Fold each of these.
Amino acid sequence: SYVLTQPPSVSVAPGKTARITCGGNNIGSKSVHWYQQKPGQAPVLVVYDDTDRPSGIPERLSGSNSGDTATLTVSRVEAGDEADYYCQVWDESSDQVVFGGGTKLTVL
Amino acid sequence: QVQLQESGPGLVKPSQTLSLTCTVSGGSISSGGYYWSWIRQHPGKGLEWIGYIYYSGSTYYNPSLKSRVTISVDTSKNQFSLKLSSVTAADTAVYYCARVDDCSAFDIWGQGTMVTVSS
């Protein structure tokens, strides 16, 4: 089955840029979605279809996807961005949803 | 604005069937265009997709759970439901219901409900 690999943790200072990667075989051919989950809360969709943002999501969060890696970029990081981030795709070869293992973003 | 709310027992005995319902408000399940899904999260762990259903009854399930899972829809009540049979402690998790848009993104989530499997 299809596997998505994320780093367990990423740390960044306030005001800097965080990049969270999501690796998968030829993931560039798939549509990647990203979720933000804060402690005790349900996940929130922050990027869909590789690069699009739902209404209300700040432009500081952006996505890209090419080759074997999709990336969620958080620019001008704020304390409120501290959360777990998950990538997700639909794997058409097995007809199932696949989530990455999640990345904890820590704001130093 | 569409909202989802999970409901059901918070404690289930081992070997029994876990049953949860998700009530959709602010929109109709039978209007089409979306799938309706269940996802779970074990304590301190990542997200695990369980399956989803279209208003017509068409379903997709996680192969690892397929033998124990049934997802159904009741358009008259604007609800969809999850049944997970033969539960063990490994099924203890927060269970979320969510709406799935046309590019397979989970765009609206319920708040989640904790289910503990214990005698």
Note: DSSP finds no helices and nine strands in chain A.
Amino acid sequence: ETGVTQTPRHLVMGMTNKKSLKCEQHLGHNAMYWYKQSAKKPLELMFVYSLEERVENNSVPSRFSPECPNSSHLFLHLHTLQPEDSALYLCASSQVVRDSPLHFGNGTRLTVT
Amino acid sequence: EDKVVQSPLSLVVHEGDTVTLNCSYEVTNFRSLLWYKQEKKAPTFLFMLTSSGIEKKSGRLSSILDKKELFSILNITATQTGDSAVYLCAVVDGGTSYGKLTFGQGTILTVHP
């Protein structure tokens, strides 16, 4: 148990489907993140919510839509994805103070067919 | 744009060997450097380094930062098969309120019995 829980663990979806990834943190943190991890590429920051406000949208296509209803929950809504969006999607949380490391969830392995 | 380069990209050793992993970086507003270990799931936090020349140590793992030459090393002595993982280096940009992380591509370490 990492303190950051992601569901589902695996997801296979067609390009016309709509699905959502869910993340919940039990650490009392006030910042949450979505990262994308593709094979042989560095972790890419997608979105950041700090104190429930989106503070980073790292040139992510509009087919990815984040939602942060409170400081403990984060969603990533997916629609009309492309095969190149297949990757491991990692959620993380941290405390917005100096020198607080990120704590990651186990990720959702997404395959777009 | 912040940049982190890790080397080697992959490394294969035998149990008992000592390994050194390298991380060089370019960041506009350096706050700290972090090392993570990833074994197929969530990256787990190893070290945070903020000051040059001060070694951080945890069991057989140690790490040090050189802010003048802009690099860090992660040492693992007496390696074990359980050390097999991807080791990720990341730098924190102090120019954002939440501490934006930029990751390297990782070093894949394989330890054979």
Note: Residues 32 and 43 of chain A are 15 Å apart (CA to CA).
